[in-house]
Known about the structure:
The chain has helices at 48-53, 72-87, 149-163, 189-198, 334-337, 408-411, 478-485, 504-511; strands at 20-27, 57-59, 91-93, 105-113, 117-126, 132-137, 141-142, 206-210, 221-227, 230-237, 250-256, 262-268, 274-282, 285-289, 296-302, 317-325, 329-332, 343-346, 355-364, 369-374, 388-389, 399-404, 416-424, 434-437, 449-452, 456-464, 472-476, 515-520. It contains eight helices and 28 strands. The protein has three domains: 14-175, no CATH class; 189-307, Lipocalin, CATH 2.40.128; 315-521, Thrombin, subunit H (Beta Barrel).
Amino acid sequence: MTYRRADTKTPTTAKKMKKILLIILVLTSLTGFNQFAPTSQSNNSLSFQNFLAGVDEFTLPQFLVADQTKFYSQQVAESAAYHWLQNIGFKKTNKANASLCYTATVKLRGIFYSDGLCQDLQLVFTSCNGDSWVFKNNERVELPEYGNLGDDKGVFERLFSGMYGYTKPTFNSYYSYTLKGSEKTNYTEQTLKNYYSSNKIDAIEGIYELSFANKESPKYRLGLIKNGDDYNLVYLSGAENYVDWKEGDMKAKLTPTSTSGLYKTKWSMGDKTDKDAFAGFDGTTMKIIMGDRDPDLYIKMYPSSTDKIHSNSGVTASGTGFAVNSMGYIITNYHVIEDATEINIRGIKGDFNKLFTAKVVVSDKSNDLALLKISDVDFKGLGGIPYAISFKNAGVGNDVYALGYPLRASMGDEVKLTNGIISANSGFEGSLNQYQISVPVQPGNSGGPLINLAGNIVGVVNAKHLGTENVSYAIKGSFLSNLIESSGETISLPASNLLTGKTLSQQVQLVKKFVYIIEVQ
């Protein structure tokens, strides 16, 4: 690489130097530019030599400005520092470590000018707990405008050796620091499973795993267990810095808010610093919402529907359904009501405070469909249904939209509209009973209607692809015909379509009155 100064005109005096860069280099651990809080552990009094023995690596810095904007002296100092750290015995790494404390944070500071002059160099070594050792050199260094890179790097390396002239001791984890302690519990994955299987548990209790859609995050596996009015979220496995995390460490404590299914928490990050967050639950998922970063989605892995573990009380799952007959017949997905001991419908005639009980009339597991009927004695009918149901296959490229109740814990009970197109006439792994659609859906959308712009229901939303964005699936409307016919009941489907010719907004205002929340226990 050829190094050039940002300004080739050498100022005659220091007063004419207009550009000064104060802090130039940060070599830090994978956690970024975080500062760790000091602890009261006894090894805070380690000598610098012993601290160096307890670290093994440093990481390649990620600079905030492009290289060409830096002064020549700054570029040379950065390169020299990088080379010198390796020469004294550090390893470089861009990978996660077994412990964050095995990696040193090294800062190179100085005052750099546009004419090749620099002074007041500092080397700052910082432990993962925030203890620092500072070495200084006040020599004034002036590099030629177009110097020899090797010689100029040697100037800086001699300065660094003058600040700290020893070879790094051989790595010995005995001298390594540890991150601040998190609260310990006696839980393991097996003891939690034993508890779940021998007790009636709350709807949200269970073991969760971070969705594989979050490819840049550790594959955390966490266990949730009730503790009085609160919940404890316990680390089980998956941390990249696995020496810092032990099975049973507390990951977070969840405190209820005034919104059902939404909890406030202090979330313990990978470096065991705490951040304010919210945890939202919706059926079989847990979503962690933390500031401006994208939410983390955790999938409930245990208990599954086949484990036959029943909840103590409350809603165990929530989905969407839509009316196909004014007498209370409602379509949803089979997986929404599978193994339900109680089914309730919320949102009849716009009233989300009143629940109506329902029963399964007929189900089709292979096509993920179920036909329900409101059985509540207080039920008085739904009124005229404005849309039609199409049993014909819709064409690829047709505009469609979905209505449903996704992620109610964090998004509320208002019906949500998403739209897109039919992308393919086959679904997941080529399934012929599904459409692939570009309509964004989330947990809770399952069982909702897929509607074309002519006002016909052409499918039933039933899944999303976790491995990519905006790829979802819907059961084709043609499979509804067999389901309804197999019920053995006389069900009059909507005779006319009142949505034809209306705008999307006008259609939604009419359709949403017949799209309901399905709650199961």
